[in-house]
């Protein structure tokens, strides 16, 4: 079974500051992928960043980076230079062999609010 | 292509009525997924199609739910005899082939904006 845990229901960050959103996962799979999605109030899930379990380097996509610590089973999202448009729900997710690779398991999300 | 589109965006129905939602995936994507998201939760997997074949169904998909993808393009999700517990956001996603097996887990799914169902 796969499980994603996001323990921060809500986070505040000052505009232009960096923020870290926590994510831990549990799986018995050796090969898996970790994702972060952003969901603004419009409802659409927007893909942000991906980390493979065999990737040795942390993934980066623009202002987003994924702090992958495999031994701790954590995959925290770091957003640098926060912008007002970053205010949204953020979901950590994973897929792996035990989920048939087709099913993405999501956490309950963290609501980020960027303060001007 | 402008991405995954879903119709309608909002649906209010009376308990006991049937409803049908439509999803148009990104045109070159052969894989299509339906998820359900209730308030305060992350999306939960419902079902998955590869082309027109429905390959996986979650236990969340009761007998009142049926999904089709007749020509391997758009998909419909029908809920019969709706109940108040069916009120949720129904999300559709699509992805390209080549996903599956070790080393091939990085094909992200692209989501639509969802259909918000309210059963009164």
Question: What string gives the helices and strands of chain B in order?
Answer: EEEEEEEEEEE
Chains forming the largest contact = A-B, 32 and 32 residues
Low-pLDDT stretches of chain B? 98-104
- Helical fraction of chain B: under 10%
What is the overall number of helices of chain B? 0
Give the number of helices of chain A.
0
What radius of gyration of chain B results from the CA coordinates? 14 Å
Shape of chain A, please? globular
Largest sheet of chain B: 7 strands, mixed
Number of strands of chain B: 11
What's the oligomerization state? heterodimer
Structural class of chain A: mainly beta
Structural category of chain B is mainly beta
Radius of gyration of CA atoms of chain A, rounded to a whole number: 14 Å
The chain-level mean pLDDT of chain B equals 89
How far apart the termini of chain A lie comes to: 41 Å
Largest sheet of chain A: 6 strands, mixed
Helix content of chain A: under 10%
State the low-pLDDT regions of chain A, or none.
Answer: none
**Distance from first to last alpha carbon of chain B:** 35 Å
Strand fraction of chain A: over 45%
Helix and strand topology:
The complex is a heterodimer of chains A (116) and B (120).
Chain A: E1 3-5, E2 10-14, E3 19-21, E4 24-26, E5 32-39, E6 46-52, E7 60-61, E8 64-69, E9 74-79, E10 88-96, E11 105-106, E12 110-115
Chain B: E1 5-7, E2 10-13, E3 19-24, E4 31-37, E5 44-50, E6 53-57, E7 65-68, E8 75-79, E9 88-95, E10 110-111, E11 115-119
Parallel strand pairs in B: 2-11
Antiparallel strand pairs in B: 1-3, 3-8, 4-5, 4-9, 5-6, 7-8, 9-10, 9-11
Can you walk me through this structure?
- The complex is a heterodimer of chains A (116) and B (120).
- The model of chain A has no long low-confidence stretch (mean pLDDT 92).
- In chain A, strands 2, 5, 6, 10, 11 and 12 form a 6-stranded mixed beta sheet that branches. A 4-stranded antiparallel beta sheet of chain A has the order 3-9-8-7, with no helix packed on it.
- Helix content of chain A is 0%, strand content 52%.
- In chain A, a hairpin with a 6-residue loop joins β5 and β6 (46-52).
- Chain A has 116 residues and is an all-beta fold.
- Helix content of chain B is 0%, strand content 47%.
- Chain B has 120 residues and is an all-beta fold.
- In chain B, a hairpin with a 2-residue loop joins β5 and β6 (53-57).
- In chain B, strands 2, 4, 5, 6, 9, 10 and 11 form a 7-stranded mixed beta sheet that branches. Chain B has a 4-stranded antiparallel beta sheet with strand order 1-3-8-7, with no helix packed on it.
- The model of chain B is unreliable at 98-104 (pLDDT under 50).
- The termini of chain B are far apart.
- Classes of the chains: A mainly beta (116), B mainly beta (120).
- The interface between A and B is medium-sized, with 32 and 32 residues.
